[in-house]
Design brief:
Blueprint: E1 33-45, E2 50-56, E3 59-65, H1 72-75, E4 83-92, E5 107-118, H2 135-140, H3 142-147, H4 149-171, E6 175-176, E7 194-196, E8 204-206, H5 212-220, E9 225-234, E10 245-255, H6 259-277, E11 289-291, H7 292-299, E12 313-314, H8 316-319, H9 325-333, E13 338-344, H10 350-362, E14 369-376, E15 379-383, H11 385-390, H12 392-402, E16 409-415, H13 417-434, E17 445-452, E18 454-457, E19 462-465, H14 477-481, H15 488-492, E20 495-503, E21 506-513, H16 518-527, H17 532-546, E22 553-556, H18 560-567, H19 598-603
Parallel strand pairs: 3-5, 6-9, 11-17
Antiparallel strand pairs: 1-2, 1-4, 2-3, 4-5, 7-8, 9-10, 10-22, 12-13, 13-16, 14-15, 14-16, 17-20, 18-19, 20-21, 21-22
The structure holds one RNA strand.
RNA sequence: GGGGGCGUAGCUCAGUUGGUUAGAGCGCUAGCCUGUCACGCUAGAGGUCGCGGGUUCGAGCCCCGUCGCUCCCGCCA
């Protein structure tokens, strides 16, 4: 591609590139000489008169050329996305041709001179317009996509949100720290990204999955209130709301605190940020606290979308010994079996109920039993096969318990709650979506509290940590230290001082009051079957630190990308990350990951063994 | 690792029951056009229908395999 010859500037006193940005000119500027630089967003060539929408980061200004202007010939050669400098006089647009959609819409620049600064070839993806394009094209030409309004605005908003978070954290007495990026392979559960060591053959650094141990060490070091907009690295498969490889957390930790203190510190920051950037959407004024068990029973998940008004209920009593033999039999065979009801307000049509039933079968479920209610001779009567077998009396009891009326329906799942809870939660979500019950115009927060400390691993017939092994068990220390294997039920009933913050069904974060006592930690790991020697080997640094005067401490780490995603109204993290990788953890623009030279590998004592050749 | 969806022009897509020369819009090229802001009008170029194999007189369409993208499950304390 050739650059057209540059035209020597006639106004030597002007800045080389611009006197104004493309979003600056207003009616008060009419009559002045202006110089603008930017991209040719859109060109409308009428033969005799030619319009260029010149765009930069700040806005769009209409530039006009006609055969009387010296630059007309150059203007006719311009194409979309060329970068140009234009000089000209700011003038009022003729009456009736103002564009109220543009802040600069009452003026235009009548061009005298054009210099092409950066021509562009044929575009693989236009910048103009809001058409959707495939992910791989968008990612390969991310710089073009980022010129487009939506992504450009998302990225700006991301920066503003992070600024606001920093401001609010510092106002609460938190200090920002930087923790290492090259560190040791860590105890957290995800797969590490490893970096081979040149100086130590056969040894590896790992990128931090989170600065978990460092922030605890900062507390042990006496700093009291830590935060960081922290990069985190995990080598796990991606999801729409889970970036592959790397992401950012608002990581924070506090000393001498209870769970309430952490909530009191974090909740105003999160609520404040959401109120600031929600664009008027209401935000939960006081985040409710929902125990893990209650969340499972009411919503079928530990990250409920509280915009969905559907609340499930245990209706085993109504089905036990009833004429609906399928459920009655299930309840007889096991003491833990249950029947849960999922109310569906305004879902009371056979068509909807049948649709839900076939959806359930598509989800590998036997089906989804239902009753729908309809008015009949002044009374509200349950319809459908379940109601017929259950009988009028029990159906009416059910209707009253769930407060259902003419036009409503209710669905049932039966069996072991442990196995059906996930499906029940999905059905609740499906009902909410299908019936339009979810108010999209709000941010509904909650805390999920009282997570179980341990869970039973049926495959290996052993007790496992349920979530974070470094959380403090919610039991007096003396009592915890005297637990033994015979207390299995007590152990499995133990709760950890651990919590999640959830917004609109998206898990923003996990946090905990940490286990700062080496004796408690050794006991906690012993219960999960880790011998003390292994604990010493894997976490000796941490254990030493905790044994030389550690304050009680706790914290949390809300995901920055997810917060920005919610506030931008996006459903995919890639829309709020500047240069994201694709689902297979590749950067299509930079070509990462890539092969490296044999010399590099030799220095790192690495040999590549391809599958099938070893 | 498993399951679903998609793959046709530079881009977005249509393509009937398997049947003549695979179409449209945007973009691109050339021409016309003095007030548009998704400017308009005329003409033109542009295709290994992801790739490989099969069935068939005949495949963009059916079958098998494979690759790529994406969503989900596993995984992510």
């Amino acid at each position: 591609m050739r650059f057209p010859p540059a035209v020597k500037s006639q106004i030597s006193t002007m800045h080389r590139y611009r006197t104004h940005t493309c979003g600056a000119l207003r009616s008060g500027d009419i009559g002045i000489e202006a110089r603008l630089s930017g991209w040719c967003h859109r060109i409308r060539d009428h033969g005799g008169v030619l319009f260029i929408d010149l765009r930069d980061h700040y806005g769009i200004t209409q530039v006009v050329a006609d055969p009387d202007s010296a630059a007309f010939k150059v203007a006719e050669t311009l194409r979309a996305e060329w970068v140009v400098r234009v000089d000209g006089k700011v003038r009022a647009r003729p009456d009736g041709t103002e564009n109220p959609d543009l802040p600069t819409g009452v003026v235009e620049v009548y061009v005298r001179e054009i210099e092409v600064l950066g021509p562009a070839g044929e575009l693989p993806m236009p910048v103009f317009g809001d058409q959707e394009y495939p992910e791989d094209i968008r990612l390969k030409y991310r710089f073009l996509d980022l010129r487009r309004e939506r992504l450009h605005n998302n990225i700006i908003k991301r920066g503003e949100i992070i600024d606001s978070i920093r401001r609010r954290m510092k106002a609460q007495g938190f200090f920002e720290f930087q923790t290492p990026i090259l560190t040791a392979s860590s105890p957290e559960g995800a797969r590490d990204y490893l970096v081979p060591s040149r100086l130590h053959e056969g040894k590896f650094y790992a990128l931090p999955q989170a600065p978990q141990q460092f922030k605890q060490l900062i507390m042990v070091s006496g700093f009291d209130r830590y935060f960081q907009i922290a990069p985190c690295f995990r080598d796990e498969d991606a999801r729409a709301d889970r970036s592959p490889g790397e992401f950012y957390q608002l990581d924070l930790e506090m000393s001498f605190v209870t769970q309430d203190d952490v909530f009191d510190a974090v909740e105003p920051v999160i609520r404040g940020v959401f109120e600031e950037f929600a664009g008027g959407k209401p935000v939960t004024p006081k985040f409710p606290r929902i125990p893990y068990k209650e969340a499972q029973e009411k919503y079928g998940t530990d990250k409920p979308d509280l915009r969905n008004p559907v609340v499930m209920a245990n209706v085993s009593d109504i089905f036990r010994g009833s004429g609906f033999k399928i459920f009655a039999r299930i309840l007889e065979t096991s003491g833990t079996a249950a029947v849960w009801a999922i109310p569906a307000p305004r879902g009371g049509s056979r068509a909807f109920c049948d649709r839900m039933n076939s959806w359930a079968q598509g989800e590998d479920q036997p089906g989804l039993g239902y009753i729908f209610f309809a008015g009949e001779g002044g009374a509200v009567v349950g319809r459908g096969p379940v109601a017929n077998n259950l009988g009028a009396e029990r159906t009416e009891a059910l209707r009253q318990k769930l407060d259902l009326n003419d036009g409503d329906a209710v669905f049932f799942v039966a069996g072991e709650p442990q196995t059906f809870v996930k499906f029940a939660g999905a059905a609740r979500t499906k009902i909410g979506e299908e019936l339009g019950l979810i108010d999209k115009g709000r941010f509904e927060f909650c805390w999920i509290v009282d997570f179980p400390m341990y869970e039973w691993n049926e495959d290996e017939k052993k007790i496992d940590f349920s979530h974070n092994p470094f959380s403090m068990p919610n039991l007096p220390v003396d009592e915890f230290l005297t637990l033994d294997a015979s207390d299995r039920d007590k152990i499995l009933g133990l709760r950890a001082i651990q919590y999640d913050i959830v917004c609109n069904g998206v898990e923003l974060s996990s946090g905990a009051i940490r286990n700062h006592r080496p004796d408690v930690m050794k006991k906690a790991f012993a219960i999960a079957g880790y011998p003390e020697a292994e604990l010493e080997k894997r976490f000796s640094g941490m254990l030493h630190a905790l044994s030389l005067g550690a304050p009680p401490h706790g914290g949390i780490a809300p995901g920055i990308d997810r917060i920005v995603m919610l506030l931008c109204g996006e459903e995919n993290l890639r829309e709020v990350v500047l240069f994201p990788m694709n689902q297979r953890a590749e950067d299509l623009m930079m070509g990462a990951p890539s092969e490296v030279s044999p010399k590099q590998l030799r220095e790192l004592h690495i040999r590549v063994v391809r599958p099938g050749t070893s």
